[in-house]
Automatic annotation (TrEMBL):
It comes from the Eukaryota. Residues 8-127 form the Gfo/Idh/MocA-like oxidoreductase N-terminal domain. Signal peptide: none annotated. Belongs to the Gfo/Idh/MocA family. InterPro entries: Gfo/Idh/MocA-like_OxRdtase_N, GFO_IDH_MocA-like_dom, NAD(P)-bd_dom_sf. One of its GO terms (molecular function) is nucleotide binding. It comes from Fraxinus pennsylvanica. This is Gfo/Idh/MocA-like oxidoreductase N-terminal domain-containing protein. Residues 151-262 form the GFO/IDH/MocA-like oxidoreductase domain.
Length: 361
């Protein structure tokens, strides 16, 4: 069956800024369509429709329950504040809606497990909104990391995700409000860092997680900046990450192997949505007298036919269509990677709360 036949019908629950980007992705993906959008008020839903030039055929709801009761909605994209995820994600699953849930997926793994159980028990596909996994560059980078001859064994990893919030952002954004997104920078930016580290390690959980004492909070106690180290005892591999809402823009990932290294500076959002690069070095040595190197980094460029967010929607819709039409089982790799990320995030927060002591996984 062609992708554009019987497209998966999305409902967007919440009119957050990120919903505009995902609506564009739904429009661009060949196997999906926007059926409805809901906000807490019909006025906000109408404002979103006008701002984004939505078709008159898209239904507008001023109540989230009305969206969930729409029998024509196959899947829900949910960019609500993290504190609301548990209630509305479970309700969506109980209504038989497949779930694309914005990150961070939950305030803790206990809440996430309730969401995942609701999806699993109803035979529904779950995926979080980490878009970078779906870029073809990510698969190319994995090929290099998996090449023992070129890269070898992973010895160390570092990732960062940071940006400088404006004064208005730091005062009013939901990501700095303890009742809306209590995880702050750790949940917003740190989610990407942890996810990239676990992706590098093929989703294997670390043995020990230790938050580092360099931390910044706002007056409400929400984390604005933090860092942590992760350690794998069997592999003798160490990883560190830095996440911040008060530092210059970074989206770095560096993976160091016994035979090679990989660097990417824009792993979360590529500099250009049509093409992305990464660099690797393999077999590097110093020249005689240490006056230079025997090799220079090689740059790999990867074209992308669709923006990574549209590829995420396409992948998710393909899985939903397989369940809906061919009665396939949900792909549990996505829920598993989300849960691993949440477990490490919880461990970092726990380490912070107990005075930056190590937490055993």
């Amino acid at each position: 069956m062609a992708d554009n036949e019987n497209p998966i019908r999305f409902g967007i629950m919440g009119c957050a800024e990120i919903a505009r980007k995902v609506y564009r992705a739904i429009k661009m993906a060949p196997n999906s369509t926007l059926h409805a959008i809901a906000s807490r008020s019909i006025d906000k839903a109408r404002q979103f429709a006008v701002r984004n030039n939505l078709s008159k055929e898209v239904k507008l709801y001023g109540d989230y329950n009305e969206l969930l009761d729409d029998l024509f909605v196959d899947a829900i994209y949910m960019p609500l504040p993290t504190s609301l995820h548990l209630k509305w994600a479970v309700l969506a699953a109980q209504k038989g809606k497949h779930l694309l849930l914005e990150k961070p997926s939950a305030l803790n793994v206990k809440d996430l497990d309730k969401i995942l159980e609701a999806c699993e028990s109803n035979g529904l596909q779950f995926m979080d909104g980490s878009m970078w996994y779906h870029h073809p560059r990510t698969a190319k980078m994995k090929d290099f990391l998996s090449n023992l001859e070129l890269f070898g064994q992973i010895k160390a990893i570092h990732s960062s995700s940071s940006y400088t919030g404006t004064p208005q952002f730091l005062e009013n954004d939901i990501r700095v409000k303890p009742d809306l997104d209590a995880l702050g920078a750790l949940g917003d930016a740190g989610w990407y860092c942890i996810g990239a580290i676990l992706w590098s390690m093929n989703q294997k959980l670390p043995t020990t997680v230790t938050a580092l004492p360099a931390i910044a909070r706002n007056s409400a106690g929400v984390i604005l900046s933090c860092s942590a180290s992760l350690y794998w005892n069997e592999e003798k591999t160490v990883a560190t990450f830095y996440c911040s809402l008060i530092s210059h823009e970074t989206m770095d990932l560096a993976v160091y192997g016994s035979n090679g290294t990989l660097h990417v500076e824009d792993f979360i959002i590529p500099y250009d949505e049509r093409s992305a690069t990464f660099s690797f070095t393999s077999g590097a040595k110093f020249l005689d007298l240490h006056i230079g190197w025997n090799v220079k980094p090689q740059e790999v460029q990867v074209a992308c036919q669709l923006p990574q967010e549209a590829m995420m929607i396409q992948e998710f819709s393909t899985l939903v269509k397989g369940i809906k039409i061919s009665r396939l089982r949900p792909d549990c790799r996505w829920s598993s990677s989300t849960r691993s990320t949440q477990l490490v995030l919880d461990a970092v927060k726990n380490s912070i709360d107990i005075g930056f002591k190590p937490v055993q996984m």
